[in-house]
Specification:
The protein is an all-alpha fold. It is built from ten helices and two strands, in the order αααααββααααα. Helix 3 runs antiparallel to helix 4 and helix 3 packs across helix 6.
Length: 277
């Protein structure tokens, strides 16, 4: 006798995969990596661990204040710009006008599937290094181009988050608002979007963590952020290979200490705001 089996949805890419992996790292795994990695690296060099750490200790304040905080600034500005553009793009994806929805979907798909590094190069070459307005030379620094370049793929993914959050609201609320003579704009801004904000926070934080970890890409464009200054610091110390591990390990630890709490909080908020079916 034939039996109707339950429908199993096809496997989809988990956009929270990276954040979930980061949040699930245990403290003892971090401690083991911190202990074993330096021993392995220093065993192959001629400089003692004490000398390398003293050199790093001398450069650490400069790297943090002028390098890492600049990475954080780039990530915050890119996220702010990407969020604004993403909300606008997300609204085009739910537009009732087909041309607007088609153009929004095309632009969103393009930037979601474009390599971030290529986008940075395109933005770097697309804008001039300075503007001439009424005879006044106004410089256009590379870090602003990096903010624009990083905000584009983030905006495309935020647009998908906005669309998904709006579509997750039960259609009965649209029907109830229509019965109360609310226009579509009033329903969207006064009823639907306020409910969507808390649902958008976990994936929004997930993309902020991803964006922060991508900011070292700006070093390829010559932006003086953490990785660029780290490389310059090692060159000032003679460019010895024994400094590679402590300096780049310091960069890794800083990014981990910044992104790990974000990942833990993201996973916690995702569980808290999960829709109970």
């Amino acid at each position: 006798m034939a039996v109707l089996l339950p429908v199993r949805p096809a496997a989809q890419m988990d956009t929270m995969m990276l954040t979930s992996w980061l949040a699930n790292i245990k403290w003892w795994q971090i401690a083991l990596l911190v202990l074993v990695w330096p021993l392995h690296a220093f065993a192959q060099g001629t400089i003692s661990a004490e000398d390398a750490i003293s050199v790093l200790y001398r450069w650490a304040p400069f790297l943090v204040l002028h390098g890492f905080l600049f990475n954080v600034l780039i990530s915050v500005l890119s996220m702010a710009l990407g969020t604004g553009l993403g909300v606008l793009a997300g609204l085009t994806l739910i537009s009732q006008a087909f041309p607007i929805r088609f153009v929004g979907g095309l632009v969103t798909s393009f930037f979601r599937n474009a390599p971030w590094l290529v986008l940075l190069f395109v933005v770097l070459l697309a804008f001039p290094f300075e503007f001439n307005i009424l005879g006044l030379q106004i410089p256009f620094p590379g870090w602003i181009k990096a903010v624009i370049g990083l905000s584009l793929p983030v905006a495309a993914n935020i647009a998908i988050i906005v669309r998904g959050a709006i579509q997750s609201v039960p259609s009965a609320q649209w029907e109830a608002a229509e019965a109360l003579s609310f226009s579509r704009t009033q329903t969207l801004w006064q009823i639907i979007i306020p409910q969507c904000i808390k649902r958008m926070i976990p994936p929004w934080m997930n993309w902020y963590a991803i964006l922060t970890m991508a900011t070292p890409l700006c070093s390829i464009l010559g932006t003086e952020e953490m990785v660029t200054l780290t490389r310059q610091a090692m060159e000032a110390e003679g460019n010895r290979p024994e400094f590679l591990m402590p300096f780049y390990g310091f960069v890794l630890v800083l990014f981990f200490l910044y992104c790990y709490p974000i990942a833990k909080l993201t996973v916690r908020l995702e569980r808290r705001f999960a829709i109970k079916l």
